[in-house]
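Cross-check.
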Amino acid sequence: MLRFYKIFDYGSIILIIVLIALVFFKLVPLEWYITLIIISLILLVIRILFKAYFLILKKRNQKGG
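Predicted model, tokenized:
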């Protein structure tokens, strides 16, 4: 599970940077801007939730062990 998290973490950062670059450099049609920004925000929120989950899991393991 931790391996998946690391891959997802770095992969989502790269994808968010690419999506924002596409919007910033106007490489996509204007109609796609909102969709790409929403996708970026959703990925960011999911990333934050995963981070919080694994931090809580780590604290529980340290407490119990």
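Residues 2-64 form one domain. The chain has two helices and no strands. Passed to J.P. for a second look.
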